[in-house]
Amino acid sequence: MKRDEYRRAGSAQGVSVLPKAIPGKARRAFPSAVSESLLKRPARRLGIAASLLAALTLAACNSSSVLEPSAITPQQKAQAATGQGTATTVQPGTTAPAPQPLSAAAKAVIGKMRLQVAPIVGAPVEAAGPLTERLNQRSRERGITLVGSSDQTATHVLKGYFSTMTEGKDTTVIYVWDVYDPSGNRLHRINGQQKAASVNGGEGWAAVAPATMQSIADTTVDQLAAWVGGQTG
After folding, report:
1. What is the block-wise mean pLDDT of the chain (233 residues), using blocks of 10 residues?
2. Which of 31, 49, 103, 111 is the most exposed, fewest CB within 10 Å of its CB?
3. Angle at the Cα of 170 from the Cα atoms of 169 and 174, rounded to 5 degrees
């Protein structure tokens, strides 16, 4: 699908699907989302963690949608090396699990949420399309209202940063989602990895199946709903 077709689809559904590219080496630079399993060589671990932060700083100088280095706390810097977050594996032919039941109080809080999704950073349109479509579907299932980029009633803004790593016959999608308030204050972070068998005999994004991105969307919305629904006090 061409970029203008994605733009029209995003406008119709209330979510932008056109990704923003990360310049240069920053394509693989995402905080808090690299696991120990991906860093098997101890000599490389600290070097990769350092390169993540350095590339992130470079990206921030070139794109206003890339995570600001000032938002990274010392604890999060440590997580970049240890990979705290959600790590899952997608099996061929699997379907998304049904959302876990929510309490009436949680549903009431979630029902007030109006979520604006910013353009995806780091993923091509071929990967962003299935991700966005599933974000829309899962959000409806969870009772989350999505709004367009020009909507002034948004209560939260979701920004996603993506990269891939291919090892052997598997490709892992690494992702970070930051949740902001309308003033630009970061409220919450969701990060993780989705590992699946490479498709099409390729590497990187060419090896990522739509099901992988759809699974990430399910996990993201479920974790977002759990966080918002927990603010019932």
Report:
1. 48 49 44 42 40 39 34 38 53 56 85 96 96 96 94 96 96 98 96 95 94 97 94 67
2. 103
3. 155
Host domain of residue 14: 3-21+87-229
Instruction: Enumerate residues 6+ apart whose C-beta is below 8 A from 163.
Output: 22, 27, 28, 29, 30, 33, 122, 173, 174, 175
Q: How far apart are CA 19 and CA 27, in angstroms?
A: 12
The CATH number of whichever domain residue 152 belongs to comes to 3.40.50
Q: Is 47 a domain residue? A: no
Burial of 137: CB neighbours in 10 Å, binned 0-12, 13-18, 19+: middle
pTM over 0.85: no
Query: Per the structure, how many domains does the chain have?
Result: 1
Confirm whether 193 is domain-assigned.
yes
Q: Coil, strand or helix: which one is 130? A: helix
Residue 14 contacts residue 147 (beta carbons within 8 Å): yes
Residue 105 placed within a domain:
yes
Token look-up 């000032």 returns: 70
The answer to whether residue 44 is domain-embedded is: no
